[in-house]
# Entry
Amino acid sequence: MIIPKKFKLAGIEWKVIINPHLSALGECHPEKGIIFIRDPSMPQPLLEQTFCHELVHAILFSTGDNGPHDEKFVDGFAYLLHQYMITAK
# Structure
């Protein structure tokens, strides 16, 4: 799975930026349209799952859900989204 550098949700362009100074693996900043990923050299499955997790946050923000989001839901949805993305043929 390729982690994009940018994408659109609801007409808004989002950027994916590497930020090695994060304390978390990733962060979603809807006010800036940015997903930050801490370490692109982490194991590929963890990198992909981190992106999917932050993508789910971005999708929720794009639907008008300004949070806080239920992290159990976000994790579960992100894991299933990731599995779909890496197994679809």
